[in-house]
Amino acid sequence: MAGRIPRSFIDELMTRVDIVDLIDSYVSLRKTGRNYTACCPFHSEKTPSFTVSPEKQFYYCFGCNAHGSAMGFLMEYAHLDFVEAVHELASRVGIEVVYEQGTQTEVSTTDFDDLYPIMAQAAQYYRQELRQSQAAIDYLKNRGLTGEIARDFSLGYAPKGWDNLINKLGTDSDMRNRLLKTGLIKQNESGHRYDRFRDRVMFPILDSRGRIIAFGGRTLHENDKEPKYLNSPETPLFQKSSELYGWYFARKTRPLKRIIVVEGYMDVVALAQYGIHYAVATLGTATTRQHLTRLFRSLSEIIFCFDGDEAGQKAAWRALETVLPLLQHGRQVSFMFLPQSYDPDSLVRHEGAQGFNSRLAQVTPLSNFLFDSLTRQVNMNSLDGQARLVELAKPLLMPLPGGPYRDLMLQRLSELSRLNLNNLMTLIQTGEAPKPFIVKKNRAVASLRELSLAHKAIVCLLHKPMLSQSVDDFNQKLSVLDQPDIKLLLSLIELTQMNPQLKLGAICEHWRGTEYEQTINQLASQNTHFTDTNIDIDQEFFHAINRLHGDYATQRLMFLTQKVTELTVEEKQELKSLSQSRGQIHSYHQ
């Protein structure tokens, strides 16, 4: 069996790949100055905001913030997993993938790769059990689902009993421990382990690459004392605040122009059976900003579908508050409220695809829903009511990004409240958000200075890796500093000193699958804002390095001073040296 791919091979591979050639084979790029641009492949737009830097071997979208290396592009755009992306890149540059076993420099997509096969085995087991359960088959038929749609969504059945799955897959203690990590089994206070899902129709939940990361289970009996719907708990594979049921299938719709957000996985499956393949469902949580950001990367229109009752109205309002700060660049949000006692599943079965699509053509725009809801709370025939309307609307409109949509919303509020538009804009001016498309020079400088010292130094190194060649005394002692990610900075300096040819994209890949992956990617996206500014990167970098040295010297001096009666000969000499350097330490903080 092949081992894992050594990190040194990934570093070498990334130095040979040309990100411009790679992305241009999928998206038509146009040379613009030093970089290449295109309309973003991850969200719908008319004005190109997607930039590819040959110098940094890195892509970034100023519209949706999608960013990454050549490897990351393949994984996100072509839906390849890590190993598949490595093989694809290696094939493009004409080298063979190297595998090693038992080395400390191995690369894994995550530390939990061994959990994915277990999820796949569980799904296969549930599918087999569905074929043998007439009760589960009858339930799906009564819900109007065909065998074909059940196969498309890999529906299954978890049989009655407490230990069916654990007996099937938990062949040894290691497998049982992994089953516990996936959330497929539970453990009580006495240490006894048992199946989480029992007597339920099972819905596999897939990530954007098609891997099973969790399950949803629906009880067969309406009067069951158990919860009607039961999802997997959060695990290393599954975070409900960012995952959407059906997203993997919806992304295959071409062209994907809009998405319907519903409340249950049965709704997604039922709509797909009627040819509506662009529905997704949240998983036991309200719609989050992470959900919306993911959706807006691929499309510009979202339709929220809720029950028409009071609970549905409240859920819709929560969704409205969450989405408002993201409404920019032509994005559209609407609401579809269903008739009493209907959900999308029952409605599409009752009215068919044509009836459901007719309702989609009559959805309520977000602006109408917002202002209709607010005006119902006040007396619009009085000055007090009109003033109250402005106060209610102000915290909602303040987060709106600057642009035409915000201007039109303010104009609508001006018309309703009869307040002069200029006066209204002055009232709400303090809430204006920065425009993501316009990266102002002074903003780049400010954002760099807002970072911690370690993060500032990291961003500068990502922008200009050769800076590390001028650092000759930045030792591991500084790891004791109370600075976020100081150890990451130390490792980055060491990496770029050993491999000065590494570009930004390769550096990001070096940390894939480690605890620093998210941090390095966030700082890499920060780095893209400094390309065309007047920032002196060298000066900012060495200022941060000197400040860190000063912080360490101050911290060490304080420690030795408090330890006067216990000092060794070496520590006494160090204290003397530090005391004589007080002025220099002070200069570090200028």
Question: How would you portray this structure in words?
Answer:
With 590 residues, this protein is of the alpha+beta class. It has 5 domains: 5-107, Alpha-Beta Complex (DNA Primase, Chain A); 115-204 and 214-231, Alpha-Beta Complex (DNA primase DNAg catalytic core, N-terminal domain); 247-370, Dna Topoisomerase Vi A Subunit, Chain: A, domain 2 (3-Layer(aba) Sandwich), CATH 3.40.1360; 377-431, Pheromone ER-1 (Up-down Bundle), CATH 1.20.50; 441-588, DNAb Helicase, Chain A (Orthogonal Bundle). The strands form 5 sheets. A 5-stranded antiparallel beta sheet has the order 2-3-4-5-6. Residues 430-446 and 583-590 have low confidence and may be disordered.
Entry summary:
The protein has 26 helices and 18 strands. It is α+β, with helices and mostly antiparallel strands.
Query: Uncertain runs with pLDDT below 50, 5 residues or more?
Result: 430-446, 583-590
Residue-averaged pLDDT: 84
Q: What structural class do you assign from the helix and strand content?
A: alpha+beta
Strand order of the largest sheet: 2-3-4-5-6
Q: What is the name of the CATH superfamily of the largest domain? A: DNAb Helicase, Chain A
Report Rg.
28 Å
Compute the number of strand runs.
Answer: 18
The biggest beta sheet reads:
5 strands, antiparallel
CATH-scheme architecture of the largest domain: Orthogonal Bundle
In DSSP terms, counting alpha (H) and pi (I) runs of 4 or more, how many helices? Answer: 26
Please estimate the helix content.
40-55%
- Tell me the strand percentage band: 5-15%
For the record, give the distance between the C-alpha atoms at the N and C termini, rounded to a whole number: 58 Å
Gross geometry? globular
The CATH C-level name of the largest domain is Mainly Alpha
Question: What number of domains?
Answer: 5
CATH topology of the largest domain: DNAb Helicase, Chain A
